[in-house]
Amino acid sequence: MSDAWREAASDLLTQVRPQLPSRPVAALRVLAMTADPDVGVIDISHHVARDAGLTGRVLRAANSAYYGLAGRAATVHFAVSVIGFQTLRAIAAGVAAGIGGTASLPDGYVRRYATTAAFAQQLARPAGADPAECYGIGLLHNLGDWLLHLYDPSGDAELRIRCASDVFGLASAQQQRYGCTSGQLAAALLSEWQLPVRFCTPIGNQHEAEVDTDDAATIVLQAALALAVFAEDDFTQVLTDEQQGRLDACGAPADLEPMMEQARSEAGWIIDLLR
């Protein structure tokens, strides 16, 4: 990825930063920690407890009808033990991505966020990437869409209407209009928020035609994004050669139907969780 976009992203972030909530330090730290197999519930619970909003969401999830505890999850440690790291990742990423706050979100933002993450987790293992990490990357991949929506709501909406479901065409239009793509903008903010490079790089490269084939997480994210767009058309369209090529690059199975069914279920669960 060329560095030419960095100045444009920096300028845009300077203008949009006053509209953003405070840097979600605890949420981002928790998201990164849940992808580390050496980190346990006690350490993660300590970081969850540092953020009142994150703590509230975790306790609410643990006490929901889904887990059947009916108000018995009173501590963060117990709540994290109940919901597990998968749910915790979704909650932490939702806090970081602005979901559930007061800010306006672009049309389809939450659906794309959830569906891409669901596919990324499934595609990770055959591609040789870490499923937990790819899930977190998928959950944050469209953060730049929210930023552009805050910065230029009418212009952003105009580009989305013009490019419809062509995410790579949309990225090209964003580059021309803003000097950077939504993926690059997200990577710039996440880097500023000190999320690890292994998260930022795939997100920044998600719209690149040429990527390092050794970067499994980027290949996974691109393939997951292709499937998420396909899913938004209710699977009525035929995969394009470009979409199929991205799936082939990460070793996706020939029969996509089981993956589609699982992703539908997972995405629906994430959306319900973050309402």
Describe it.
This protein has helices spanning 6-16, 25-33, 41-48, 52-62, 76-96, 109-127, 131-140, 143-151, 153-163, 167-178, 182-192, 197-204, 216-232, 241-249, 257-274. It has two domains: 3-17 and 103-274, Orthogonal Bundle (Hypothetical protein af1432); 22-97, no CATH class. It has 15 helices and no strands. The chain starts with 5 loop residues before the first helix and ends with a helix. The longest helix has 21 residues, at 76-96. The chain has 275 residues and is an all-alpha fold.
DSSP summary, beta strand count: 0
CATH-scheme architecture of the largest domain:
Orthogonal Bundle
- Could you say what the CATH topology of the largest domain is called? Hypothetical protein af1432
Sum up the overall morphology in one term: globular
Order of helices and strands: HHHHHHHHHHHHHHH
Number of separate domains:
2
Class computed from helices, strands and strand pairing: mainly alpha
Contiguous helical run count: 15
Under CATH, the homologous superfamily of the largest domain reads Hypothetical protein af1432
Q: Which quaternary structure do these chains form?
A: single chain
Q: Quick one: biggest sheet?
A: none
